[in-house]
Design a protein that fits this description.
Chain B: Pathway: Cofactor biosynthesis; molybdopterin biosynthesis. Chain B: Pfam families: MoaE (PF02391). Chain B: One of its GO terms (molecular function) is molybdopterin synthase activity. The structure holds 2 protein chains of 2 kinds. By secondary structure, chain A is α+β, with helices and mostly antiparallel strands. Chain A has a single domain, classed as Beta-grasp domain (Ubiquitin-like (UB roll)). Chain A is about 10% helix and about 25% strand. A 5-stranded mixed β-sheet of chain A has the order 2-1-5-3-4, with no helix packed on it. Chain A is globular. The N and C termini of chain A lie far apart (about 35 Å). Chain B is α+β, with helices and mostly antiparallel strands. Helices cover about 30% and strands about 35% of the residues of chain B. The model of chain B has no long low-confidence stretch (mean pLDDT about 95). The chains are: A alpha+beta, B alpha+beta. At the A-B interface, helix 1, strand 3, strand 4 and strand 5 of A face strand 4, helix 2, helix 3 and strand 7 of B.
Chain lengths: ~70, ~160
């Protein structure tokens, strides 16, 4: 199982998924009505490292963070 | 010289400082100046972000994801160091009333040109890639500033 957390303004509890790669996470998140509309604007971190690799392998206990658009300052 | 610092500092990671509520600008300025007083830098360029009164807001409010912010900042420490310079940054967490400061960054470098270039690059990349979320505070409610926010590098990965 891996954990997915939704940061900042995404009012969504942490969820747990079975996933071998980030592509598996994508498929499952696209089916969650409250999450799907955010995905096209969100960046992704795995264990706090930003990534742009959809084929990235995941292992048990990994933590995927979904980061919506930012505006510091 | 001892500098008194009455504001509650939440976190310091190699010149990254996060505070609960508005920043005490003069104190942070002088603290940083003091820290580098013997470092032989010829240029010190601070940038201060102040909350403007507009759209009937009472305050802005901020969430920060610290683990990714620390990595983003440490990359900048390294980039600056390769050019002989040093970056520092302070940011507020939670509510920051109008006419107070939420964000200060600064560059120290031996000569002015690198500091002028770096402060521009550092502040612009901060706006695009620091994991910080802004909310307008109106009537005591927090409203995500969606239309002023920027998708971070690599956005849209999971919509494919």
């Amino acid at each position: 199982m891996i954990k997915v957390e939704f940061l900042g303004p995404m009012a969504q509890e942490v969820i747990e998924l079975e996933a071998q790669t980030l592509a598996d996470v994508a498929t499952q998140l696209q089916n969650i009505e409250s999450v799907a509309p955010w995905l096209e604007k969100c960046a992704v971190a795995v264990n706090d490292e930003m990534t742009a690799n959809l084929g990235m392998s995941l292992k048990d206990g990994d933590r995927v963070s979904i980061l919506p658009p930012v505006c510091g300052g | 010289m001892e500098i008194e610092f009455p504001f509650y500092l939440l976190c310091v990671v190699d010149s990254l400082e996060l505070y609960q509520g508005p920043l005490e600008v003069e104190g942070i300025f002088s603290k940083w100046l003091h820290e580098e007083s013997e470092s032989n830098y010829g240029a010190y360029i601070p940038f201060v972000g102040t909350i403007r009164a507009e759209d009937e807001i009472e305050a802005l409010s901020f969430d920060i994801y610290e683990p990714v912010l620390e990595k983003w900042f440490n990359d900048w420490v390294e980039r600056a160091s390769k050019r002989g310079a040093k970056v520092k940054m302070a940011h507020a967490i939670g509510d920051v009333p109008i006419h107070t400061s939420s964000y200060i960054s600064a560059v120290f470098s031996p000569k002015r040109r690198i500091a002028l270039e770096l402060i521009d690059e550092f502040v612009e990349d901060f706006k695009a890639n620091a994991p910080i979320w802004k909310y307008d505070v109106k009537g005591g409610k927090r409203i995500y500033a969606a239309d002023r926010s920027t998708p971070m590098d690599g956005f849209g990965l999971l919509s494919k």
